[in-house]
Amino acid sequence: MNQYDIWVAAFKYFMIKHFLKMDYPNEFWETTLEGELTTWKEQDEWLTTSPKDAADSNISYWEK
């Protein structure tokens, strides 16, 4: 596993914890996660942001 794959696994862990809290339908998890990951990957922001901080940022946007 490379560094990005490890980062993605941790990011998904934090996002799925949030999905479970909000009772988000699991049939949408994978497409939602891929969409949420796109920006982090395309802009290489994952290199400077922890997976938890990235997930928290996405979650706070959802809660607005």
Account of the protein in words:
- With 64 residues, the protein is mostly helical.
- The protein has one domain (3-62).
- The protein contains three helices and no strands.
- Helix 1 (3-21) runs parallel beside helix 3.
- The protein is globular, with a radius of gyration of 11 Å.
Task: Please tally the β strands and state the result.
Answer: 0
Average pLDDT across residues? 91
Strand content: under 5%
Summed up, the domain count is 1
Which class of secondary structure composition applies to the elements?
A: mainly alpha
Helical percent range? over 70%
Instruction: Report Rg.
Output: 11 Å
- Contiguous low-pLDDT stretches (5 residues minimum) are none
Major sheet attributes: none
Number of helices: 3
SSE pattern:
HHH
What are the salient characteristics of this protein?
single chain, 64 residues, mainly alpha, 3 helices, 0% strand
